[in-house]
Amino acid sequence: MRVFMLGWEFPPQISGGLGTACYGLTKALDEIGVGVCFVLPTALPVSGPSGVKLRTTADLAETTSVFSHMELHHLPAVLQPYGTTETYQQALRELGDMEQQAQPPPGPQDRKGPDEAAAMKVLAGTFCTAGGENYTGDLMAEVHRYARLAVELAQSEQFDVVHAHDWMTFPAGFAVAAAMRKPLVVHIHSTEFDRAGANVNQQIYDIERAGMHGASRLICVSYMTRNIITSRYGVDPKKIDVVYNAVEAPAVDNWQMQPIRTNEKIVLFLGRLTMQKGPDYFLRAAKKVVEKFKDVRFIMAGSGDMIQRCIEQAKAMGLQRYVTFTGFLHGNDLERVFQIADLYVMPSVSEPFGIAPLEALSHNVPVIISRQSGVSEVLTHVLKVDFWDTDEIANKVLAVLRHPPLQRTLRQHGHIELHKLSWRDSALKIRKIYDALAAAGQAKSP
Amino acid sequence: MASVVFYFQVHQPFRLQRYSIFDSGANYFDDACNEDICRKVAAKCYLPAGRLILELIQRHAGRFRASYSLTGTIIEQLQRWAPEVLEVFVELAKTGAVEFITETYYHSLAFLYNRQEFIAQTQKHCELMEKLFGQRPRTFRNTELTYNNDVARVVQDMGFDTVLTEGADHVLAYRSPNFIYQPPNCDKLKMLMKNYRLSDDIAFRFSERTWPQWPLTAEKFAQWVDQINGNGYVCNLFMDYETFGEHQWAETGIFEFLQAMPDKVLETGKNDFLTVSQAVERYPSAGEIDVPHMISWADTERDISAWLGNSMQSNALQDIYRLADEVIATGDDVLIDNWRKLQTSDHFYYMCTKWFADGDVHKYFNPYESPYDAYINYMNILDSIRGRIAAG
After folding, report:
1. Portion of chain A with pLDDT greater than 70, in percent
2. How many whole angstroms separate alpha carbon A372 and alpha carbon A344?
3. d(Cα B392, Cα B384) in Å, to the nearest integer?
4. In a mutagenesis test of the A interface, which of B23, B372, B373, B377 is the best target, namely the one with the most A β-carbons within 10 Å?
5. Share of chain B above pLDDT 70, in %
6. What is the number of other CB atoms lying within 10 angstroms of the CB of residue B330?
């Protein structure tokens, strides 16, 4: 079984959960012997406040060396949906600088296998996006450019199934599947309704809808998402499988290690500061917590279009002393913030899945999650709240901070519960879907 | 001769209302929910089952007998919301074929934490039984059949003749629950141990269609009872009263089974029905049973981990009993009553994380979405209790 897989981010270049999910999934598929030809747009830094480093060849070698059946291909197109107009402009300038020095981009078919991929340089001719909320800029042009290049690449590849992650790769998936007469699986990690609430971008909705209806099969990350797909996009529920995300088991079980610290308790928000993630509800709950409990610090790790508003909101509430904004955290910084956190809160307004709570649990940090999340379908040893109920969020935050036995029990059971979720199980489910599609395809062909 | 000893446990807790850390006020109990459940269970179980037992006693001219334990909390609820159920119990008491057993009034785990409080609650319950039913109880059963040698000792010193507990395999070993036993060093106290296989055939498996013995008929069950003849004296069928009509719905045929079973047992001519006290009077003790560790009738573990299995439960229990002296010193009857109703074991059962992920019997009328919610709510209420103590 070989899969032509289309994504738009992959570690170490990630801005959210999709990259993490694609990595976990392809690694597990690789382990069960499914060959993956993973096609990525070229990434350019879209800087948040803390900045994201450019990928180095060493990083890439590290990422790809764990795979034995996977090939990573980069297409010279940039699909970065999250960012602001300023970062877009900045990326364009950086792009211009690079173009001056770089050689012409080699054709996609030149790059194959982990070694070649690892040796690849950041390409000239890369592009940037997209202005935050409105997806202005060249994003749509990029989506179509990515599709065209993907079809070119597909000509020289052997595969049984096309698998496309989220709307930006749907046109590419569709084009490749049609050109190569292969079944298409679309994988829904989030929908426009999750990201935009009521202000749905019609163009994106249309691409999503076309992809969903054109696909042979849909995979979505939760029943919550499945409901959106059937009710808002009119997709036949029989076409949809739910495959949950998972988390990699932590390398070391170091949950008893505590860094030297003061009495201050640390409550963590981790995610993009966008409407979808509910940072404003987090702050409102923080205000209520502080009324009852002063030895607390709220860390908001992440960047996004609401960061300015959140900083101002914190100030207006008199929370300056209690809230720290760190910007987007990566690698070691992320590890460290999990190590010092007493509690992780995910007050998302609409979260198709939500891998971050799993990561928190794998670091032995107890979590509060909103019921409006896919991950709340699989986790039981967590505290659940409605995102709008800031009294209840504060009530639960205070309970965890004030009652160590609660924190202890959540940690112990939460950590055990993580073992229920494995990428391997998800990959096995997906392989079954591939096998069924490939078998059906063969039955049809003369 | 094999004697069937039926004992029914009748209990409902005062469930708590949602109490956030931002709430104030001293109204902790969810009256609407408690009334709703009480009326529902009264209609589905307590009334039809009570009337059926009464009819069976009358039809068999006193040869059908049963024993009951009603907690103080269910009696208070019945007085408020379903007094017709209490009337049936008074009728049952008048037949002379029904024995009322005592336990802690508040269905608490006080024995584990505060001996004085345990004795006070037991006495309070004895007085209530005497007042309502005109019987001074001679038999004691601790909450959820929690039991060990110490319980036996204390209960004997309080003057009881008999104590009930679970016929747990790890305690009985090769012995059978179908005899009367004695606790070590308690020459005045007898113990009856639940025959959990036959009890659970009715209480849990009755409607289980995958069970090879389904459907369970009165004839079949009477045969199983008859098999005890020659291998024992008693068949101790201990179960929640809610088995009839609530755990096993009327549609399963549970009432028809209960109606027909006495006929089938009695028609052999060899077997009969006894109350707990009659059984210990008639049969000799077959020896001592040593129970050094706490056992109970809960879950497959038959231990107390359902109430004291994680650090939240341990913390909540210690905190409630830590307040004992201060609460009683206030002399405030309402506060003392609130504090005692918070001791009911169900509140700690709701905090059990053992089988939470699978979802099971722990869900029965459980008002919480998770054990964590149960703990948070409980601890917020304890804060309020502490506030009231401090305010004097």
Report:
1. 77
2. 16
3. 12
4. B372
5. 98
6. 15
Q: State the Cα–Cα distance between residues A154 and A37, nearest whole angstrom.
A: 10
pLDDT in tens, B2-36: 999 999 999 999 999 999 999 999 999 999 999 99
Phi, psi dihedral angles at A276 (to 5 degrees): -60, -30
What residues of B act catalytically? 144
Q: Is A118 on the interface with B (CB under 8 A)?
A: no
Residue B116's Cβ-count burial label (10 Å; 0-12, 13-18, 19+) is: exposed
- Can you tell me the distance from the alpha carbon of A189 to that of A28, in angstroms, rounded to the nearest whole number? 18
Contact indicator for B141, B101 with CB cutoff of 8 Å: yes
A318: left (phi over 0), alpha (psi -120 to 50) or beta: left
B271 touches B226 (CB < 8 A) = yes
Q: What is the pLDDT of residues A178-195, one digit of tens each?
A: 999 999 999 999 999 998
CA dist., res. B88 & res. B51, Å (int): 7
B200: tokens are 């659970």
CA distance A90 to A51: 12
| A383 vs B: CB within 8 A | yes
Please identify which residue in the block is written with the tokens 């609130």: B338
* A100 contact partners, CB below 8 Å, separation of at least 6: none
- A406 chain-B contacts, CB cut-off 8 A: 312, 372, 375-376, 379
Interface size, chain A vs chain B, as Cβ–Cβ contacts under 8 Å: 61
Q: Are B320 and B342 contacting, i.e. CB atoms less than 8 angstroms apart?
A: yes
Query: Does residue A81 have a cis peptide bond before it, meaning omega lies within 30 degrees of 0?
Result: no
* Residue A352 preceded by cis peptide, ω within 30: no
CA A106 from chain centre, in angstroms, equals: 29
- Prediction pTM value: 0.88
Q: What was the pLDDT predicted at A94?
A: 58
* In B134-195, alpha helices (H): 149-157, 169-172
Are A368 and A393 spatial neighbours (Cβ–Cβ below 8 Å)?
yes
How many residues in total does chain A contain? 446
CB contact under 8 Å between A392 and B20, yes or no, is: yes
Q: Do A384 and B370 touch (CB under 8 A)?
A: yes
For residue B331, the one-letter residue type is G
CA–CA gap between residue A77 and residue A126 (Å, rounded): 6
Burial string for A186-224 (b: 16+ CB within 10 Å, else e) reads: bbbbbbbbbbbeeeebeebbebbbebbeebbbbbbbbeb
A384, A391, A410: residue with CB nearest B22: A391
Strand partners, A242: A220
Nearest chain B residue to A393 by CA distance is B20
